Structures are given as structure tokens and as C-alpha cells.
Amino acid sequence: MTKMFDLVIIGAGPGGYTAALQAADFGMKVAIIEEKEIGGVCVNRGCIPTKALLYASHIFSLMQSSDAFGIFTNEISFDYGKMQKYKDRSVVTYREEICQIFEEKQITVVQGRGILRRDRTVEVHGKEGKEYYQGKYVILATGAKAVVPPIPGADLPGVVTSDRILGGGDWNYHRVVIIGGGVIGVEMATIFNSLCSRVTIFEKNSHLLGPMDDKVAQELEEILKAKGIGVYCNVDEITIAKEDSLICRVKTASGEEISE
Known about the structure:
By secondary structure, the protein is of the alpha/beta class. It contains 7 helices and 12 strands.
């Protein structure tokens, strides 16, 4: 039996859930379909967890110079595992708040993998088997996933994605090379710099933060460098090798060769 709605949305990330809330405010009957966690990448593996770690690491950074404010401690340290638990609590709280709003606005949440069929019908594969939802309108808000570029050595142990970092609780990041100077890359660099890691960013474009304003990106680059973060843009070639430790070798568009 096909269930009828004014609007069916595939994907409950920021695009999907904000569209669902807005449509419900307009009086539409809404169903939103999500295969994984409500909130998508942003809430679960992007914006919210990185902001939580940024906040925690910023507190540690502030404490290192607290004597300037007349606040003294005998010893300052951090527990990266507990920071991760704080991050996890933040994610769960945010996700639960979204689900609560869904319930208040009577938005139907369907857990499963949605497949768009003809006549604006969505076939959902979930725990109950196949179900069908038809809408006057259908929004595809399926988001994206991380792709590891074909960099020689990218499959070596110790080369990880941001998802892996956000999911791990062990501290072994005394020296960090970040390939990619987008938002997530810059946030990761800031987190580890605040935790006293030696950090370098390699970015293939002419400035950080991709499509954002180049003047803003330039100001940010200067701020990061002032914090002690190495920033190299216009990177042309990248190779990762295993010697005594992992070595990242790059060549810039101008021919400069750098090893970190």
C-alpha cells in the first residue's frame, strides 16, 4: 500500500530537514526518509562534531595562557578520549532536538534507503521490508560522501579521513599534515594546533576555503600562520611515503619542493 504525502524528502541532512520543517510550517503533510542518522553529515560527521572539538580544544588553549588573567594552575593536560565523548554528547543532543521538532510538527520520519520510482513514488528499503511513499512533490537531498583522491601512498596506515579522526578516541596526533584547505581541513588544523600538535596544510588551489572570498581566505591564512600552522597553497603534486614515519612530499606550481 502506497502512503500519500504532500512532500516526500529523501535525505535528512541540513538540506532535507530544513526543507521538511519549512514545508510543515506551510501546512504540508511531510515524510522524510533517511538511511543513516538524522542530521546527515553536518550533524553527525561534520559541522557539529568539529565545532564541539573546536570549543574543547579552545578551552585548553586558553588555559595555557590563563596566568595573564591572574588564573594559575599547577598542571594543564587534556584527555582526548573525554573530548570525543563530549563531542558525541553534543551530536546526540542536536540530533534529538531535530527529532523532537519533527514530532512537534507531525513530520513522518522513515528509516531506510529511498529509491525514486516513477510518478513521484519513493520505494523505501527498511527494517519492515519494502514500503512506498508518494508525494505531490519529491525533494532529493541525498548529500555527499568523502572521496579519497588518488594520491600515491594514500592507502598507507596512518593516512585517515576526517570521519576517522572524528570517530577515534586515541591521541597520536603530535604531528599532523592535512591535505585540503577547505572548511573541514582548516577546522581540523585549528583543533590540533590548539592541542599543541605541529600542523601543516597543503592546498591545491591558490587560497584556502575554496570558493570563499579570496581576501577573507588571505586574512585567515595569516591568522593560521601566526598560530604556527604551516600553510602551502598552489600544491601541484603530492606523494606520501613510509620511512621512519609517514612523509608527505609535495611540489608546488612554482616548482618548490616541500617534505613534511
